[in-house]
Amino acid sequence: MATLTRTMTYAELVAAISAGTLNIGESIRITDYVTTTAQADTSSAGHQFDLIVTALTNNKLSENAKAVLHDADTYFSGYGARLEAWDIKYTPFNNTAAFAWADTVNGKGVIYFMRDEWGNECHYDFKNILFPRTAGGVVPQTDNYFTFSWVNEDDEIEDLSLIGNSLQNDEGLYSGMFGNKIGVCNASKFPYADGIESLSNNIFISTSAFDSGFFYGCYSNTLGNNCFSNIFGNSCYSNIFGNSCYSNIFGNSCFSNIFGNYCYSNIFGNYCFSNTFGINCYYNIFVDDCFSNIFGNNCYSNSIASSFRYNEVYSNINNTDFTAIAELYLRNYSHQVIGKEDGGCVVIWHDDAGDQQKIVI
């Protein structure tokens, strides 16, 4: 970043770009920048920080920008955030043909990439953008949530990306909030057109409740491009979710999973972990303690009962309800679903005597 040469308001910067009066290589501090959004069902917390931009020519800025504390700031400084370590991509133009959240009325340009000092990154200003949720499932209350949210014991929502690395779990350890990455969401569905980026509506919610456990980390999660409208509960870490994995709800302690492309509209219960799901595995419901499973391609519309574990489900297993197999449901035998036979799924397991059992459902 070049040496700071002058400060400007956003309006003054736009006027200088229009007039071609920028000095090549100069570094400019925008003193009244604030994130806004015009995308439906999103809002901004309005926590202000200043941007520092660099002129490439007399009428063009570099997309690479930096953040600094706004004068008289008490919010970011109160958390001890190191804004100077953030990496930002910014355009001064409120271009609705490129960004679904661009605000042509009140906007002061668009941040379309942000990486903080902890390596958390999104294709928008995740320190400000909020997504609404109605209470239910892993969502503790009806409210607007940050991409990374902490609901404290007073039921106040805080930005987990700011507070997460100062929270201790109930062993007194700092589990951390770092290395989470959310890919670009191309708004290819109504009401937006192909090629327009949209806010991806993913949220990670960690909560604190008296005598029920504390923060166990939210880190090393990667959401691929077009992974949209997901909700992740406490202790969700080290997951990799493929592109177009959207409208999912994952319970607490859902970790070390790998989900293939187009895996969407699923509900996974608590303690569902170490799973691998193939491409086009969707419309599934997995309840508590269903773990260490492998599901093949095109395995969809399944309902797996509580405590089913160590399963291997291969390709083209459709509309399977494992609750119908009482012996497996009650005894939790390890089992395999290996294909289709006479239009049904072949389920094989070994009983207490070690004898192989087989059923077609």
Account of the 3D structure:
The protein is mainly beta. Helix content is 7%, strand content 29%. It is built from four helices and 29 strands. The protein has helices at residues 10-19, 75-78, 160-163, 326-331; strands at residues 4-8, 27-30, 43-44, 49-57, 60-61, 64-69, 87-91, 110-115, 121-122, 129-133, 143-146, 148-151, 157-159, 181-182, 203-207, 222-223, 231-232, 240-241, 249-250, 258-259, 267-268, 276-277, 285-286, 294-295, 303-304, 312-313, 335-341, 344-350, 356-360. The strands form four sheets. The protein has a ten-stranded mixed beta sheet with strand order 14-16-18-20-22-24-26-27-28-29, with no helix packed on it. The protein is elongated. Mean pLDDT is 80; it is low at 305-321.
What multimeric state do the chains show? single chain
Average pLDDT reading: 80
What is the topology, as strand order, of the major beta sheet?
Answer: 14-16-18-20-22-24-26-27-28-29
Number of strand elements: 29
The rounded distance between the terminal residues' Cα atoms is 65 Å
Q: What is the helix content?
A: under 10%
Number of helices: 4
